[in-house]
Amino acid sequence: MDRTAFLTALGAILPPPRLLQRDAQLAPYESDALTAFRSRPLAVALAETQDEVIALVRLCHQHAVPFVARGSGTSLSGGSLPVQNGLVIALNRLNRILSVDPEARTAVVEPGVINLDVSRAAAAHGLYYAPDPSSQLICTIGGNVAFNSGGAHCLKYGMTSNHVLGIKAVLPDGSLVHLGGPSLESVGPDLTGFFVGCEGLFGIALEITLRLVPKPESYRTVLASYHSLQAAGDAVSQVVASGLLPGALEIMDRLAIEAAEASVGAGYPRAAALLIVELEGERVQVEAEFVELQKLIAASGAQEIRIAHDDAERARIWKGRKGAFSAVGRLSPDYIVQDGVVPRGRLGQALATIEQLSSQYDLRVANVFHAGDGNLHPLILYDGRQPGALARAEALAGEILHMCIELGGSITGEHGVGMEKRRYMPDMFSPTDLTVMEELRRSIDPLELANRGKVFPDSHAPALHSAPHPLERQGVISRV
User: Fold this and answer.
1) What domains are defined for the chain?
2) Rounded distance, CA 156 to CA 249, Å?
């Protein structure tokens, strides 16, 4: 790469205020929400139009410069970590909701649109966008598409892939493609589904056609406390086995409850575990299911059962759950968020194992997760100022992922592989599986320019703790 020629060409696409090159300008982009990984890019391009994104990708292809698309930087797997000497294409300014069609129940948006803003725009038509990650106040639709995000209500409504109908994208060579369309029915291979969850390896989505759903007529939200995590996990299995299909089934453990109380004062009971169950839909159906749910929860050994009687009480329950990830920062200076999946029937066993591992590694683990689909989100608390603490936390995280595989689950449910889980791919997939995946990637991106170094275990990593944290440079933190 001719660095000077590339930067000169960049300057012809973007004005100086939107082309960041100084160290102080690049520092905020050197990591995402997984701050243990850091890497400084050559430059950050603040694109404002689709044409600018296309021009930037074509320039990268021309000069063989790797690039990473970035939204709000909320990835918890290092998925939007920059590539050293590469370009970050920031998409936050592509934040237009291009259309909302209440009759077709669709919305067309740009990748920088905030998740929750789609529902706000559709609310006037009695519609909303169902996928609701905990970071929905800030995460972007482009990032949701890249990592196939889920959320608390994915049990009933599915993941992002179930709500994306069409995508206009620029491929790594700069060519434009239109995948899918505005209809729920499509002809031929599901190329839209192929693109969703690709973690940025296939290019950048420029326009996304989303499926909207009607707002439920009625909600019934139940909060139950338990004497152990295993008891709460077993209760989830009983609810699902009954044939009920709640909109959400969520579990929080003692540490997560403590953090939520300190952060938002949700009024949760003191307990080893909390289970949140929410029914939603037509009023008659919800009320009938609610009678059955109350019987199930009462028979599950719950210590205390609370029912939200109005929207304010429901919002209070969910405020604690939605804010749990950030609230854990009140309990520990550092933590790792894991994202493994286990079959629902093995939840109790998985949670008991996590408790044992927490004791074995002498590290506290706060559990907050989508119990309905077995998507675990254990938060491993550590203090980066202590020598070896990060390595010990990562070892514990690895044990949890191996447990998920052994129980018949997966190393990721919605956060993606990114940088964090690359090393575990051979534990879950055979060499043939990995070879086919890599061949598919190279057929679209032979130069491996798009999000280079992510997902695959043998690819060149953009960084692995490569750039020291500012506190490391001051001698405050040690990673070894």
Assistant:
1) 97-214 (3.30.465.10), 218-327 (3.30.70.2190), 332-428 (3.30.70.2740)
2) 10
